[in-house]
Amino acid sequence: MLFVGDDWAEDHHDVEVQDQHGRVMRTARLPEGVDGMARFHELVAGFLADDAEPAQVVVCIETDRGPWVRALVAAGYQVFGVNPKQAARHRELVSLSGAKSDKGDAHALADMVRTRRHQLRPVAADSDLAEAVKVVSRAHQTLIWERTRHMLRLRAALREYFPAALDAYQPLTLTGVDTLELLAKAPTPDQAATLTLTQISTVLKRARRRPIADKAATIQRALRTAHLRQPEVVTAAYAGTIGATVAILQTLNAQIRAMQGQVEAHFGQHPDAEVYRSQPGIGVILGARVLAEFGDAPGRYADAKARKNYAGTAPITRQSGKSKTVHARIVHNDRLVDALHTQAGAAILHDPAVRAYYDELRARDIGHNAALRQIGNRLVGILHGCLKTATLYDQTTAWSHRAQPVAA
């Protein structure tokens, strides 16, 4: 067998080929792209017998996605995508001096996959549709995160020079189309104070707010309330920044709606979509996010425990002597953890069995977030069983282990 360490950069790959005894056969720097992949095939082919299988080539690289990794998997090589933290720890074993280079990293990766591949997770090829769901769902979530960042900047700026606006638009949201339209129309205290009930009501009507008359009166009253002000020139400067931020938020709102349509379209085509949507607390968008992060490669998760470990919901135990503590996992997929936490929060509101489990945990003095993590961990196990058997969620079956099952 051949063991290849691949230290990748944006435009090139440093690779090292080792035999089963750890002897360095060849090192090379390959360009990114088609030419680089062709040279990679030529490089490893030079050390293989004519009747050798591609699976006799084991590749270790610090990523599990991208066209280069997909090309390696498609060629039939065994590919292991390792966490950079894992690679850094192994590098410390083979280089006590602390020296670091691209060539040295390739050597460490090759040595790592040669000696410890039984402890590493092979890259499993997801379907093209699952990959597409991942692309659009991650883009949709990233846009939402960006909107939140700009909303916080907007709030900070208003607090500095126009605090009355925060009181006026509190019943709405700072990312709402009506709030943004009113801020674009009147970004300064003096301009906002001149807004009439008709102008405010027209904006609220377009946003389908109810009751319009009461909300319009509340907003106008708050905008005309006396508050501490900045000098006029400073206020004008703030108004300019508010205009730019409002324009960005309006664009983000439009693109989030457009990307949501893409998520729904791609997720709806996936054969596992109904299984995901049947889970408590999961809708189309959340289902797409969970599918995107788990992937759909068959055999990727040997059992429910493996899926829970990857999800980051399973706790870790630290024991030394008489000391034994249980902690939440710190290293995890942030997007997946966020989706599962949201699912657990929604599930306790809509599924009686999940709510009963939550109440039981809280009665044992377990905090809210810790209880949601335990619920999420249980829901991941249920999801694994449903996907494995291609069956929809059934409350009775899922919670049959409980002494007193909760009726639907």
From TrEMBL:
<feature type="domain" description="Transposase IS116/IS110/IS902 C-terminal">
    <location>
        <begin position="277"/>
        <end position="358"/>
    </location>
</feature>
<dbReference type="InterPro" id="IPR047650">
    <property type="entry name" value="Transpos_IS110"/>
</dbReference>
<feature type="domain" description="Transposase IS110-like N-terminal">
    <location>
        <begin position="4"/>
        <end position="163"/>
    </location>
</feature>
<dbReference type="InterPro" id="IPR003346">
    <property type="entry name" value="Transposase_20"/>
</dbReference>
<dbReference type="GO" id="GO:0004803">
    <property type="term" value="F:transposase activity"/>
</dbReference>
<dbReference type="Pfam" id="PF02371">
    <property type="entry name" value="Transposase_20"/>
</dbReference>
<dbReference type="Pfam" id="PF01548">
    <property type="entry name" value="DEDD_Tnp_IS110"/>
</dbReference>
<dbReference type="GO" id="GO:0003677">
    <property type="term" value="F:DNA binding"/>
</dbReference>
<protein>
    <submittedName>
        <fullName>Transposase IS116/IS110/IS902 family protein</fullName>
    </submittedName>
</protein>
<dbReference type="GO" id="GO:0006313">
    <property type="term" value="P:DNA transposition"/>
</dbReference>
<dbReference type="InterPro" id="IPR002525">
    <property type="entry name" value="Transp_IS110-like_N"/>
</dbReference>
